[in-house]
């Protein structure tokens, strides 16, 4: 679970990263936690929890985490480093009833809310979420005042099947023509199930414009995963956008690639991913090649539809 921070002078370097919403990656898909109390990493510690089967090499990589800040503008590198070192021990998954995976209140309330950058220069955002019972509304209300959401955009909805799992209704909504370096408030859901969030757009692209990226990879959903995300959120040098370098939920470590663990992971990261863009790269744990359950084509495009019933 490497975590780091990188400061860049130009945002053009982001073009090599996936701009797909997380739901497209794992379902077919502030800086510190801005609302409420962070889920406790100790939830359900006394209950039986399944141990994730990480390889020895992965544990060795995950055991020592470094947060680095580097100024890369004009080819110059300098910065400060602070250490984040985890114990060298086997990771244990958080149980399904952990607070980190809690379902938001309200019938058919949007969950797993997350955003990603919607274009190459930062003037668009894709908002994604899931409604569990029925499609509901795919409308996003947004604006620069919390009390005056003067704009709206309508998204698209779909669902998928994977072996014995049927997803909820997955929404993606593209918001365009946003102002740079501006805080926007947005709402998804209707009535008692409405949920409120916000994000800040990046500054206009330029050769000497500072911008801070957080780097995260191999996150999973263990107790150590919770500590890793909490460390990122609480660090004084907060990233403005997360570059996620692959291996998201580790759902493929479960029997039949249990896609319920994509739902729990989506709820787990919402506390940060709903407030700042996470830009995704698929890793080997997102391939979903499982001939034993009929998934016979290596799936690297995130569609997860090659295993339909």
Automatic annotation (TrEMBL):
Gene3D superfamilies xrefs: 3.60.21.10, Purple acid phosphatase-like, N-terminal
InterPro entries: Calcineurin-like_PHP, Metallo-depent_PP-like, PAPs-like, PAPs_N, Purple_acid_Pase-like_N
Transmembrane segments: none
Keywords from the named record: Glycoprotein, Hydrolase, Iron, Metal-binding, Signal, Zinc
Any one GO molecular function term: acid phosphatase activity
Calcineurin-like phosphoesterase domain span: 213-289
Swiss-Prot/TrEMBL catalytic activity: a phosphate monoester + H2O = an alcohol + phosphate
Keyword Glycoprotein set for record: yes
Domain annotation Purple acid phosphatase N-terminal: ranges: 110-198
Major enzyme class: hydrolase
Presence of keyword Transport: no
Name of the protein in question: Purple acid phosphatase
Family of this protein: Belongs to the metallophosphoesterase superfamily. Purple acid phosphatase family.
Superkingdom of this protein's organism: Eukaryota
Enzyme Commission number(s) of this protein: 3.1.3.2
């Amino acid at each position: 679970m490497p975590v780091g921070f990188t400061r860049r002078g130009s945002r053009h370097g982001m073009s090599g990263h996936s701009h797909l919403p997380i739901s497209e990656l794992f379902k077919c898909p502030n800086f510190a936690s801005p609302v409420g109390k962070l889920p406790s990493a100790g939830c359900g510690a006394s209950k039986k929890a399944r141990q994730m089967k990480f390889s020895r090499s992965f544990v060795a990589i995950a055991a020592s985490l470094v947060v680095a800040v580097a100024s890369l503008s004009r080819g110059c590198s300098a910065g400060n480093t602070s250490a984040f070192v985890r114990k060298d021990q086997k990771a244990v998954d958080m149980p399904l009833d952990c607070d980190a995976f809690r379902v938001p209140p309200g019938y058919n309330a949007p969950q797993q809310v997350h955003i990603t950058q919607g274009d190459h220069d930062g003037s668009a955002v894709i908002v994604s979420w899931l409604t569990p019972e029925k499609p509901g509304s795919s409308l996003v209300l947004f604006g620069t005042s919390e009390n005056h959401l003067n704009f709206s955009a309508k998204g698209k909805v779909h669902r998928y099947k994977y072996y014995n799992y049927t997803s909820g209704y997955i929404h993606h909504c593209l918001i365009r023509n946003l102002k740079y370096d501006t805080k926007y408030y947005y709402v998804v859901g209707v009535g008692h199930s409405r949920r409120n969030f916000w994000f800040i757009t990046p500054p206009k692209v330029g050769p000497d414009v500072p911008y801070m990226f957080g780097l995260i990879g191999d996150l999973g959903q263990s107790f150590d995963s919770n500590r890793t995300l909490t460390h990122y959120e609480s660090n004084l040098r907060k990233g403005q956008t997360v570059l996620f370098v692959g291996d998201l939920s580790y759902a493929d470590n479960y029997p039949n690639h249990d896609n319920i663990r994509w739902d729990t992971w989506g709820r787990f990261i919402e506390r940060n991913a709903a407030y700042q863009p996470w830009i995704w790269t698929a890793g080997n744990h997102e391939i979903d090649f499982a001939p034993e359950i009929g998934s016979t084509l290596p799936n690297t495009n995130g569609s997860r539809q090659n295993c339909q019933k």
